[in-house]
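## retry 2 of 3
previous attempt timed out at serialization; input unchanged, resubmitting
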Amino acid sequence: MIWKLVIGGVGGQGIITAGIILAETAVIQEGRFAVQSQTYGAEMRGGLTRTDVIISDDEIIYPKVDQAHMLACLHRKALSAYHGMIRPGGLLVTDRDEAPALKRLDCRQYEFPFSAAVRERTGGVRNVNLCILGAIAHLTGVVQMEHLEDAIRERYPGNDLALAAVKLGQELVVDSGFRAVHLGEDGRTGRHATSARV
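## retry succeeded, writing output
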């Protein structure tokens, strides 16, 4: 299976770091193949930022995300700019307050209060990027939650807030009643899979 994800936001939200952690989890913790790339504006904060991640069980031939199985957005500017990248039947996950979902008929849309929940739990929004990673892992199973937690421990040793943010993302999905979304395509046949159980 091959799985293509885009995470979008603005500078200062840790979008690129989130993509790197997700790719590292797949490669280092799970022994799979992954490619991570990034696009960002010249501004240090507030400019559009995007990270593309491809995870595969086989070697990755083409390292660019053309049609994403999933788009996760933490800011309305990113949602407006990148929503056209989702393939029909794909998945859109947004921050309920920062990036309200669009009215689209050709993808499934889930909203979660990522920023509000992290702010309530920690007093700030510094780890909202890690919170959305926890939600992505639980929603899709693209990486195992325990492996993502191991990657967080390695990157942020002794940082309990970072680990708590990842677990909070998982909790938000569980508390909303979502069970699983299976995304990806068979790399050998190009068949597309986007079944969902809600």
